[in-house]
Amino acid sequence: MSLPVKISHDLPQGDLLGLLIVDTARVLRTAFENRINAAGLGLTPGEARALIHIADHEGSRQLDIASQMSVEPMTLCTYLDKLQTLGLIERHKCSADRRAKRIALTKTSDEMIRKIRAELHVILDHATSGLSLEAKSQLEASLAVVNRNLQETSPLTPSGTDERR
Fold first, then answer.
1. What percent of the chain has pLDDT over 90?
2. Helix, strand, or coil here: 99?
3. Average of pLDDT values for 43-50?
């Protein structure tokens, strides 16, 4: 079990924000992994994350999904193998590059995605308890801006990688 981060208000402006964002992401990911492991869905947390990424970006190439998840392409390939075996996804050749694979959901994936999202909503409801609806909306909007700004200055796909996968 990780120790909570001590919040020092003596930090230079901006340092506290960065610390809070990084630590909150870590704690959120740990909570997600624990909930998925305890839910008995038959998926690992990585497979569950992959399925949610596919649902949010259906038709994306394997390499793009790996980049969005910040995992190695071979790690994602292992997740996709299991998801395909379970009948939750299909791989299709990319019309623009026959060497690349695009990932699509199957109709049977709907129920699993619903269960994973339900687990995520429990975590997020707990994490944001005590915030008004307005504060939750503002937090979401602010984090979206931060995320977009960071993606513009630091693209998801590292330079020099083979983007055809």
1. 72
2. coil
3. 97
Which carries the bigger pLDDT value, residue 161 or residue 107? Answer: 107
Output the CA angle 16-53-15, nearest 5 degrees: 5
Cα→Cα distances 56→5, 14, 143, 158, Å: 31, 31, 18, 21
Spatial separation of the C-alpha atoms in residues 156 and 158, rounded to whole Å: 6
What's the topology of domain 15-127?
Arc Repressor Mutant, subunit A (1.10.10)
| Backbone phi, psi, residue 111, to 5° | -65, -45
pLDDT for the residue numbered 165: 41
Tokens 């230079």 — which residue?
12
Count the neighbouring beta carbons within 10 Å of the beta carbon of residue 54.
Answer: 24
Q: How many residues does the chain have?
A: 165
